[in-house]
Each structure stands twice: as structure tokens, then as C-alpha cells.
Amino acid sequence: MNHNARIEETIQNIYDALENHHNHPVENGIGYIDGWISALDGLGGTALTGLQAELRNLRGHVERDDRAAIAGSLQHLGQETSLIARNLHDATGDQLRHLGQTLITAAGNLKVS
Q1: 24: pLDDT confidence band, cut at 50, 70 and 90?
Q2: Which residues contact 24 (CB under 8 A, 6 or more apart)?
Q3: pLDDT surpasses 80 at 97
Q4: 52 vs 4, which has greater pLDDT?
Q5: Which is nearest to 99 in space by CA: 19, 17, 9, 11?
Q6: What separation in angstroms does the CA of 111 have from each of 7, 11, 12, 27, 107?
Q7: Chain centroid to CA 33: how far?
Q8: CA 68: distance to chain centroid?
Q9: Where are the alpha helices (DSSP H) in 1-90?
Q10: Whole-number pLDDT of residue 39
Q11: At 21, is the pLDDT very low, low, confident or very high (cuts 50, 70, 90)?
């Protein structure tokens, strides 16, 4: 799967999880997180290494069902994703900006639920 398709799938899954949170078991979420960690493996760059580290943090928060920590991690991932996308002026940049906003929205929704 190419990165653009993976980004789109991730955005859709975040929306689905927010709308139907009771239908998304922890194992599915961990599988998606692991998929992103693997997808970023070997791409290099400190920004991507930072994203991988935060994804590993998120994985631990999901396993513990620590909603406050999950929200904080999603917020951080959204901000970092948006920063990475700021200088990309193509379809991938647009999708990354959308993903960044989706992650930030998901964080906000978790904080108020």
C-alpha cells in the first residue's frame, strides 16, 4: 500500500473510531499503530524518528486504555504531522495536513468525552 492510500485509510479509521468507538477493539488500533511504525522504519530523518517514538508511546497508552495520555499523544502526533506537511505542496502534503487536523480533532474529542 502506498503512503497516500495508508494516510487516507488512517483518516477514515480515525473518523470511524470516533463515531463508533464501541466497535473498534484495542487490537485493531494497535495493529494500525504498528503498521505506521513499520511504514516509517528506515525512511530516516529526525522528524520521522520522533513520530515513531510517539507512535510507540501511543501504543502503550492504548494498551493501558489511558484516555488522557492517548489524547495528548494524538495532539502531539497531529502537530508534528502538520509541521512535516507545511513545506509539501502536493497531494501528499494535502493529505498529511488533513491527517494532522484529524489527529488534533480526535485528541480534542477524547478530552471532552
Answers
A1: low
A2: 13, 16, 17
A3: yes
A4: 52
A5: 11
A6: 23, 19, 20, 22, 6
A7: 7
A8: 15
A9: 3-19, 26-40, 46-64, 67-85
A10: 83
A11: low
Q: What is the DSSP letter of 20?
A: S
Is 40 in contact with 32 (CB distance < 8 Å)? no
How does pLDDT run across 63-92, given as a tens digit for each residue? 888 889 999 999 999 999 999 889 888 888
Pull the grid cell for residue 103: 489527529
| Number of Cβ atoms within 10 Å of the Cβ of 26 | 11
Cell of 3: 503512503
Residues, the chain: 113
**C-alpha cell belonging to residue 79:** 502537530
Map residue 95 onto helix, strand or coil. Answer: helix
Angstrom distance (rounded) from CA 96 to CA 66: 26
What is the rounded (10 degree) CA torsion for 82, 38, 43, 101? -10
C-alpha cell at 16: 470511524
**Which set of grid coordinates corresponds to residue 9?**
485509510
